[in-house]
Amino acid sequence: QVQLVEFGGGLVQAGGSLRLSCAASGRTFSSYAMAWFRQAPGSERDFVAAISRNGNNIFYADAVKGRFTSSRHNAKSTVYLQMNSLKPEDTAVYYCAADPDVISRAALHYDYWGQGTQVTVSS
Question: 3-class DSSP state for residue 114?
Fold first, then answer.
C-alpha cells in the first residue's frame, strides 16, 4: 500500500501560479504511476495529469495543457503539479492518485488517493 498527502493548495488570483506536491509513504514510490485529478462542487472528479513510474510519459487534460506541468522526484517520493496562468475555472479540490501499473486518464484505474487540497482562483 501507499499513503498520499497533498500540499500546496490555496487562494490565488487569476493569472497566478501554485505548485502542488503529493508526498507518498509506504511501498516504493517508483513502483507507482501517479496522477492528478480535480473535483469542483457539484461536478465529477476530472482528470488533470498523469505521469509514468519513471517520469518519461506524461499526459495532460486538454483544459490544462500548456499551463500545468507534472513532474516527480522518486528519491523524495513526491509528485508535483506546477500550475501557471490559473483561471477561475481551475478552482477545485485537487487529488493525487497512485496505481502500481501504467498511467491512465480514468479515475477508476487508481487504487490509492490522497485527501485532496483546495485550490481557489479568484477573478
Answer: coil
Q: How far apart are CA 84 and CA 81, in angstroms?
A: 10
Q: Nearest 5 degrees, angle CA 52-CA 58-CA 59?
A: 120
Spatial CA neighbour of 74 closest among 54, 56, 46: 54
Closest CA to 52 of 86, 116, 98, 20: 98
Q: Residue 92: is it exposed, middle or buried by C-beta count within 10 angstroms (0-12/13-18/19+)?
A: buried
> Of 11, 14, 5, nearest to 78 (Cα)?
5
pLDDT along the chain (123 residues), means of 10: 95 98 91 97 96 95 98 96 98 96 91 97 96
pLDDT in tens, 46-61: 999 999 999 999 999 9
